[in-house]
TrEMBL record:
This is DNA 3'-5' helicase II. It comes from Niastella yeongjuensis. One of its GO terms (biological process) is recombinational repair. It holds the Pfam family UvrD-helicase. Residues 135-185 form the UvrD-like helicase ATP-binding domain. Keywords: ATP-binding, Helicase, Hydrolase, Nucleotide-binding.
Length: 367
């Protein structure tokens, strides 16, 4: 069995660049690079073009769902559906008053129009592989020598069963990601729910104990200054501290709080990228990005419109009331910035309780 690796990479550690470089290191190998979102797939493709001028022929780039459908479900679908072809994936959330039985696969897996439910896609591939005594994995062994999976923290449910099966195959597997940035999930399946999102490190440790992979950590950050790294690290104190390798400096570096009355002036002066929880968040008529969509991006400065749980954490530093999704979102938002992070705090009482320097206070001391 080849050596398999799981790389836990802090934000800004150039993990996607590492995937690109590692996949280019062995031009004689047939390599598949996988990731969950189309946005990240486009980023990986752009990195290949930026650094190497093209995506070379020995490398295939594919989204996770496309991989499951094309290389998992369709080749052996007749083991379950002898007279039917799965056309595509239904991404809409399934809303049922009853839970269909697995003994009736046409209603359990398939929607009208021969579409397979996205929440059951990896489960279907797992079932097909078992019915065909490892046929899916065996076929992949004949196509690829190595598979790289970026943003591994986004996997869930039966994805873990398939990845474990791949790790026990002849294919070399390298998974790269950051459990702290688990803002997405491939499915709502309850299978392996204890490893969902930020808890995925647990399954990596199990694999390491069982001898099917080794775990490496990347703790150097090339994106953000040390003040931003330290601020982000406090949200996940059980992880190794991040060391900044970003040494550029400006007169306005660090983490700040902003009063509502200061927002437009601050925005005009520093032109930060506005980050919000959802598209309907009140950003005082300033355009911005949803935090989840900003993952993988780098900005000079960010202005965060925090949620109520985030504000509560900023006031009391108590992580127990900050849910995993809020922790991940907050960590992603903070670590997009090179030089400065500014939180908008509209409530005066909350503003006074947050132990961060105020924008005007710092500007006055500099002057």
């Amino acid at each position: 069995m080849p050596s398999n690796n799981v790389i836990l990479a802090a934000a800004g550690s150039r993990k996607t660049t590492s995937v690109v470089n590692m996949s280019m290191a062995n031009p004689t190998k047939r390599i598949l690079v996988l990731t969950y979102t189309i946005e990240n797939l486009d980023t990986i493709r752009s990195y290949f073009i930026r650094d190497y001028g093209m995506v070379p022929p020995h490398i295939t780039l594919q989204s996770w769902y496309s991989f499951l459908l094309q290389d998992g479900a369709r080749p052996y679908q007749r083991l379950v559906y002898p007279d039917m072809r799965i056309e595509s994936i239904l991404f809409a959330e399934r809303k049922l008053s009853f839970h269909p039985s697995k003994s009736k696969p046409k209603t359990y897996y398939i929607a009208k129009g021969n579409l397979i439910y996205k929440d059951h896609l990896s489960e279907f591939v797992h079932q097909v592989n078992e019915k065909g005594t490892g046929c899916v994995i065996e076929r992949l062994e004949g196509i690829y020598d190595a598979i790289f999976i970026d943003e591994i923290q986004d996997m869930s449910g039966y994805d873990w069963e398939l990845i474990e099966a791949l790790m026990q195959s002849k294919i070399e597997i390298c998974c790269v990601g950051d459990p702290r940035q688990a803002t997405y999930s491939t499915s709502n399946s309850q299978k392996n729910s204890k490893f969902k999102g930020g808890r995925c490190e647990g399954i990596f440790r199990n694999w390491e104990q069982n001898g099917i992979c080794s775990i490496q950590e990347m703790t150097d950050c090339f994106r953000s200054n040390q003040q931003i790294c330290d601020h982000a690290d406090r949200i996940f104190p059980n992880y190794k501290p991040t060391t900044s390798k970003f040494f550029d400096m400006t007169p306005h570096d660090g983490v700040y709080k902003l009063k509502a009355s200061e927002v437009l002036e601050y925005y005009s002066q520093y032109r930060p990228i506005v980050l919000r929880n959802r598209i309907d968040s009140d950003t005082m008529n300033l355009d911005g990005f949803n935090i989840g969509v900003s993952k993988g991006k780098t900005f000079d400065r960010v202005m965060i419109f925090p949620t109520q749980p985030m504000l509560q954490y900023l006031m009391d530093g108590n992580l127990t009331n900050l849910k995993n999704q809020s922790k991940a979102g907050m960590y992603v938002a903070i670590t997009r910035a090179r030089y400065s992070v500014a939180y908008v705090v509209k409530d005066a009482k909350m503003y006074n309780k947050i132990n961060l320097p105020g924008y005007r206070e710092v500007e006055s001391s500099v002057l």
